[in-house]
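Q: Please design a sequence for this.
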């Protein structure tokens, strides 16, 4: 029997042998052609931990490959981002001195403010995002001002967050990213920026930030572990996803330009839900320090092949709905992506 003998209607009907999705996986080029999710260096945001001084580099033990850097070294490392295709960096500051009010957070010559000014000179095209929170600046390590009982004061903290955002914006930040989960933070910062003629500065809200055990290495990096208690009176309970949508809705209403979900890996369902509920806003996922540490530890033990593992995990965050990703793997991943084209 030749193919011409077959009944054309029979041929049109789907036979079991016709159902072969593997046809599109046969060669690397075919796989590239039909891939639904792409990962590119310009989806990645590189974090920097800025410390006082000059020529100072302090490795962070629980984050191999990531160092605290003085402003001059941040400038050096930032120069390498452009050629790698990375378009944005997020800055965290570790001040000289800490106090109950986190005063250095909004000091004109604070480490982050200095870094922004220097980077705007040396890497003018790099998008500068700044973390707006108090935990790196307070001696008690909490994300805001405290009442005597230790409870985090909400509206009093908003005033300080507004001051931090203004000082970052005046130094030249493109995007301010309030990370403390304080009610009303986006609205307060938006009003303060507009009032200062800083309407052009965008707000990336850490709208959905869980009270996670995976921030441990960051707290070493930023020297911002709470001296007592925890952050569960303001960060989200890991069991809650509907509440995440409520948080996101409030931030959208208050004027957030983009939203962020954090951590990423255990919360990809939340990334997906926020993406679906607010498709008009750019969405970021924060691949946090503990997630980085887990992959690094396994890779260093020879238990995981780092390069494919990292690219797979970052792609999964994109697939879930993240437009961009804050990740300590940024420069490695960008290099691997460049090598693979
Ligand atoms: C500050 C802040 C934290 C992180 C980002 N901004 C720490 C925290 O909330 O305890 C965590 C980032 C990471 O773990 O990589 N509020
Ligand atoms: Zn904080």
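A: Design:
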């Amino acid at each position: 029997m030749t193919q011409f003998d077959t009944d054309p209607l029979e041929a049109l009907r789907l036979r079991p042998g016709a159902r072969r999705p593997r046809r599109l996986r046969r060669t690397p080029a075919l796989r590239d052609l039909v891939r639904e999710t792409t990962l590119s260096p310009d989806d990645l945001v590189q974090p920097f931990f800025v410390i006082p001084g000059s020529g100072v580099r302090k490795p962070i033990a629980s984050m191999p490959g990531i160092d605290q850097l003085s402003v001059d070294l941040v400038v050096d490392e930032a120069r390498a981002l452009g050629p790698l295709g990375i378009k944005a960096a997020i800055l965290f500051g570790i001040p000289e001195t800490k106090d109950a009010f986190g005063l250095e957070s909004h000091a004109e010559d604070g480490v982050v403010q200095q870094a922004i000014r220097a980077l705007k000179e040396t890497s003018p095209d790099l998008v500068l995002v700044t973390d707006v929170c108090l935990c790196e600046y307070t001696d008690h390590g909490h994300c805001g001002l405290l009442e005597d009982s230790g409870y985090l004061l909400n509206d009093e903290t908003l005033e300080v967050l507004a001051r931090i955002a203004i000082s970052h914006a005046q130094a030249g930040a493109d995007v301010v990213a309030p990370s403390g989960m304080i009610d009303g933070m986006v609205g307060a910062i938006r009003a303060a920026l507009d009032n200062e003629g800083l309407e052009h500065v965008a707000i990336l809200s850490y709208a959905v930030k869980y009270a996670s055990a995976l921030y441990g290495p960051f707290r070493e990096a930023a020297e911002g572990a709470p001296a007592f208690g925890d952050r569960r009176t303001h960060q989200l309970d890991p069991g809650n996803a509907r509440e995440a949508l409520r948080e996101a809705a409030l931030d959208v209403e208050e004027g957030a330009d983009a939203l962020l979900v954090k951590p990423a890996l255990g919360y990809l369902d939340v990334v997906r839900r926020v993406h679906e509920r607010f498709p008009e806003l750019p969405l970021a996922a924060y691949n946090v320090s503990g997630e980085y540490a887990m992959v690094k530890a396994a890779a260093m033990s020879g238990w995981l092949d780092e390069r494919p593992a990292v690219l797979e995990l970052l792609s999964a965050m994109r697939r879930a709905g993240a437009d961009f990703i804050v990740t300590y793997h940024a420069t490695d991943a960008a290099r691997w992506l460049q090598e693979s084209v």
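Q: Thanks. Anything notable?
A: The chain has one domain: 39-340. Residues 39-340 form a domain with the TIM Barrel fold (CATH 3.20.20.70).
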